[in-house]
Amino acid sequence: MKLTVTQENLHKALQNVARVASAKTPLPILNNIILKTSKNRLLLAATNLEIAVTHYIGAKVESEGALTIPARLFSEFISNLPKGNIELETKDQHLTITLDHYTSTIHGMGAEEFPELPVINEANTTQITLPTTVFKRAISQTILASSHDSTRPMLTGAYFHTQNGELYLAATDGYRLAERKLIKSAQPTPIAAIIPVSSLQELVRITPDEQEEITILIDENQVRFRLQDIEVTSKLIEATFVDYRQLIPQKSDITVVVDKDEFSRITKVASLFARESAGGITIKTDPASQTVSIHSIASQLGENTSEADVKVDNEGSVTLNSRYLLEALGCIDSPEVSFSFSGKLAPCVLKASGKTDEYQHIIMPLKS
Amino acid sequence: MKLTVTQENLHKALQNVARVASAKTPLPILNNIILKTSKNRLLLAATNLEIAVTHYIGAKVESEGALTIPARLFSEFISNLPKGNIELETKDQHLTITLDHYTSTIHGMGAEEFPELPVINEANTTQITLPTTVFKRAISQTILASSHDSTRPMLTGAYFHTQNGELYLAATDGYRLAERKLIKSAQPTPIAAIIPVSSLQELVRITPDEQEEITILIDENQVRFRLQDIEVTSKLIEATFVDYRQLIPQKSDITVVVDKDEFSRITKVASLFARESAGGITIKTDPASQTVSIHSIASQLGENTSEADVKVDNEGSVTLNSRYLLEALGCIDSPEVSFSFSGKLAPCVLKASGKTDEYQHIIMPLKS
Fold it and tell me: CA-nearest residue of chain A to B106?
């Protein structure tokens, strides 16, 4: 294999691909990335067997070939080189890299030892194209509600699915739940795929800001995200997602409409006094004064009460985990939020005020 | 005690003072800061018994008093409040903090339990005033060469001293050494003070960018840095500093003049292949081609050779720790550096090219 690529292109591709190979793995070959010529392009790819990332860059290919090479060293080396044309040449299982005054030889392993990259039969997939900004924001709004508990694998994924012809992304850990409506699905085929959160995080990291759309291909076992020159392919989590919609209250007794920043601030301040009580803060509404107050107490340290002026229809109180509430508020894209609850036991619902169905975040109360 | 201060001033003062109190300490009172009225000002202070930081802010004092209060909680609470006037009022050992809709009570401890703040008799001190930018840069250029080895306390400090009427800051860990000349000392009194590196780091962190000058007061056991409204007082390390000047070569056989960024880059690239050999890279000069080359090798991974065009007077080679070389290059404030050495055993000298005596950084070679 002998070819020339630019440092800029190679560096960018390695930033996308190398991280997947850097994960801890018992198989040394998975610390490598594979380089493979393909006509006038160079393929760079890495996999951790759950997710695979491929990136094609333009290359002037003199002779075809393939090799795998330690991802971290190769990537750090290339990122420290100046801009310019890099010549890559293999000899046995060594890769020689030359740019001006810089010459390195890195020892690789044969491409034949590398696991096969995942193949998808496009004819059997459901395909959806979404604006990048919408999908990236939907991911960040939902995955924080997912679980890290690997004994319940289903909850470590986000549920990408259709319901009444509309497309949703949802996640829950049993204590909180986030659901984002995406565009109306153009597909007659229903979708019900649980995508690992780690794969979605990798996708968000890789997707460049200038990428306008992401095409999503789903079959029974895999999902592929297709960007310009880049593909991220992930296994799906094999399970049936919890019937989470039954957890969402249809109506609540008390609804507060409040400035998001002010609600965040009084929650943050109250959380400082809630470290002893696992973050528990008590929210109380007062329709007479049209205020909400948050109280928290730490026997050793002191106590706090903070108020905000709001619109509220009923009197009530509920105790919540302050971190959950803060994180949920951070997911809402509107200056005013609507916070609804029904006494101390029913789930609380947070939405952007006015918009009723684009995004909702449910938090279970703490026993107080 | 009852008084009013602005959130902005209190927040700023707490940022400077609270960190000293946050250090791990066996004495719970040292996790507190002391608040004390002083005419129309409020004193905030904290100490870890090695260093003490005091900060005065303007206050509208209704009644005098003093109290100590947990630094972390108080500081986080104040930093999360909106801008405005904060009322502080003590009752027994509780501090009530009120701003608009926010009311908190924090439990404190009596001011009488707080250790006495360090006192300096100004008449017995040597005083020097330096431009802030000069002193901050001198600190960052030298303390990286100090030691973290607490069994040799002298080397965990920076040596602030006069030599032939000139003022220097120097530090060494035995493997490398950095010396920065400050202004010509205006003092007839010689200075020889070893200042703990941790105190200098705290000073750098606290000193605001808009502070033009720092006044330094030194007596036999203590140093005080005086800024507008803020004082940082530190114990000195009681020891005689190593006679480091004997380690600095008076002349070298080989001198390379090289572009700093390019030298950094080829060093960085070479260091990637030097992880097996404790960072060891071999630098070789070639007067015929007027180049310097750096070679490094990792038996498992591969090897690297990088070159740069330089001005060089002699042929030679030396093996250095690449991290030391990179950090030293980062301390030099000039686009061209002069790198001098004499074979494989003598110390190497790095300076800004042209400027011979403002800053020098010495690195001992590795055995190769």
Answer: A302
